[in-house]
Amino acid sequence: MNDNTKFVVKHRELLPKEETTVTMSLRIDRDTQEKYDELSTKSGRSRNELMNSALSYALQNLEFIDKKSKQ
Question: What is the torsional sign of CA 46, 49, 55, 58?
Answer without folding.
Answer: negative
